[in-house]
Amino acid sequence: MLRRTFLQTTAAATALSSIPTFTALATDKPMAKSYRNILGHKMAYVDQGSGRPVVFLHGNPTSSFLWRNIIPHVSGTHRAIAPDLIGFGDSEQPDIDYSYADQADHLHALLDELDLEDAVLVIHDWGSATGWHYARTRPERVSAIAFMEAMAPPFHPIPSYEALGPFEDFLRGIKTPGVGEEMILNKNFFIDVFLGQQGANQPLSDEVMAEYRRPFPTPESRKPVLKWPREIPVGGEPADVHEIVKANSEWLLTAEIPKLMFHVDPGAIIPMQLAEMLKQTLPNLESIYLGKGHHFLQEDYSDEIGQALAEWLTRV
After folding, report:
1. Does 174 fall in a domain?
2. Which of 130, 169, 233, 310 is the most exposed place for a label (fewest CB within 10 A)?
3. Residue 111: inside a domain
4. How confident is the model over 12-36, as a mean pLDDT?
5. 62 domain residue, yes or no
6. What does DSSP say about strands 119-125 and 34-38: parallel, antiparallel, or unpaired?
7. Does 295 participate in catalysis according to the annotation?
8. Is 271 helix (H, G, I), strand (E, B) or coil?
9. From 58, 73, 124, 295, active-site residue
10. pLDDT (tens digit, 9 = 90+) per residue, 256-271?
């Protein structure tokens, strides 16, 4: 049996000083994409390099653009794949509900069609829920997982809105018909505020924000962005997402698949206290503390994440 490991024991044993020093030239330009017809809809994905596949999964309200300055660190030695979720980036925006099931069905079908073997997942935000789900149900395809700001144990479905503390009014508002539409569709809160102003250590540049806004020029086009937070399970609803999140959490507590966690302080969904707990509870886990950060740490620490991934990939 593999034993749990983590980096803090040897002066941050695999701290960034021992990682290859290649530094990518930061870019604010999107990467070239390939396209496939998945379940009757066009899905876009970055596909660079060759060799063992490393699959980068984004969440809400981003796209494969989130990984633009991390992918070059691994695409020289691996096949780097970064899908745009259905309704996001350059993937089609069909007239569907954009439920968790819709998103997972499209993403998982795309990854199945790419016929992945011995794949490494790199996951974030809702990309973590769909990523854990994929690895749990297709263990023959996935052999290692790196994660950051991810849904992780003891992530249990939220029993009630009151349990959210200071976030109670926020999530209630998003899930309330009419109020959520005003916040997300009309005021574009998730992109302009949560991502652009609060998600990184500094407000994102106009050029970067223009690319993140590009797929969502109208209130109607932002329907996928609104649906994701409404899928957060509270009090057992939505029931299907409740069961998937619960199953993912239970699986992670025993799964011996190699894992690498990146975390920051204060973080958002992996605060420092949870990060320390995960170091003690998740099997076969290594971890890297990056420093001050919030939810979109890819925008602050792209080279550090890319270099650490490159080094880790030589060992798993």
Report:
1. no
2. 169
3. yes
4. 65
5. yes
6. unpaired
7. yes
8. coil
9. 295
10. 999 999 999 999 999 9
